[in-house]
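Need a sequence for this fold. Nothing fancy.
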């Protein structure tokens, strides 16, 4: 993987995160190309990472065995149609990190046929190397392709595969939107701590470290979060009293409703983005 030619179409935050992760893992920057229309961004990418950077999408795409589509979903159709002749001629593995754009639509815009295409949904913690990414492979993706895609996404976090593309809508609801849910919980805890009399700096530090510590415990434990919750809840203690309030408030069903709403919106956006022929 370390010398596989990779082309990124788009040089924004997600592309930069993936590039940084790849190079940090030993990938040869001389084997990475980035197509980016903004000259200052091209200069930054070359200076920061030592990668090749240019303005021409088709020209960049022809240099790689793996093409990563890292542009906004709203412009992906135009970019894909522009890339179609180069993609059809060279038949690289195509990896899309554009949320919502479904494989049949993207493959059609790229010219159709037996293109190997992987859709993935990394979330924003990719910016700090802690993403949770789900991947879906179409029928033309080989085992070697799957390994390439997984290696690329593992450069910024953990990866899982789903066999049904529609499950990416559930992934979007859970991990794609999920960081915002945890930020809201942290925000709410900080505000409540201020109301209890703690200074802002202390409330923030204790909130963030507690969130980090709980996540680290859950990641490193073989036990479920439910079991860990029980273990830190002493009968008759303060934690039990607080959890009873959260339970009475319906926090579990509320999260279920929130994720269902997010999944439904992901489906609506997929329909909208794929409407045009």
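Here you go.
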């Amino acid at each position: 993987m370390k010398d596989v030619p990779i082309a990124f179409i788009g040089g924004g935050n997600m592309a930069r995160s993936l590039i940084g992760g790849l190079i940090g893992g030993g990938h040869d920057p001389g084997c990475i190309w980035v197509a980016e229309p903004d000259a200052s961004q091209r200069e930054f990418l070359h200076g920061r990472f030592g990668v090749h950077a240019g303005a021409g999408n088709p020209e960049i795409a022809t240099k790689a065995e793996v093409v990563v589509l890292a542009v906004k979903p709203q412009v992906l159709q135009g970019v894909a149609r522009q890339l179609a002749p180069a993609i059809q001629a060279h038949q690289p593995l195509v990896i899309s990190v554009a949320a919502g754009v479904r494989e049949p639509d993207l493959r059609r815009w790229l010219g159709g046929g037996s293109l190997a295409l992987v859709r993935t949904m990394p979330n924003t913690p990719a910016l700090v190397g802690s993403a949770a990414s789900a991947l879906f492979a179409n029928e033309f993706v080989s085992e070697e392709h799957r390994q390439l895609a997984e290696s690329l996404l593992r450069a910024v976090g953990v990866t899982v595969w789903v066999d049904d593309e529609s499950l990416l809508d559930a992934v979007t609801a859970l991990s794609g939107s999920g960081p915002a849910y945890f930020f809201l919980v942290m925000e709410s805890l900080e505000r409540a701590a201020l109301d209890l009399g703690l200074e802002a700096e202390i409330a923030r530090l204790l909130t963030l470290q507690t969130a980090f510590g709980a996540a680290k415990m859950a990641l490193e434990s073989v036990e479920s979060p439910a079991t860990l919750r029980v273990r830190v809840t002493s009968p008759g203690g303060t934690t039990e009293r607080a959890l009873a309030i959260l339970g009475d408030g319906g926090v579990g069903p509320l999260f279920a409703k929130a994720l269902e709403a997010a999944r439904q919106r992901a489906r609506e956006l997929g329909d909208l983005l794929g409407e045009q022929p």
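For context: The domain at 6-168 is CATH 3.40.50.720 (Rossmann fold).
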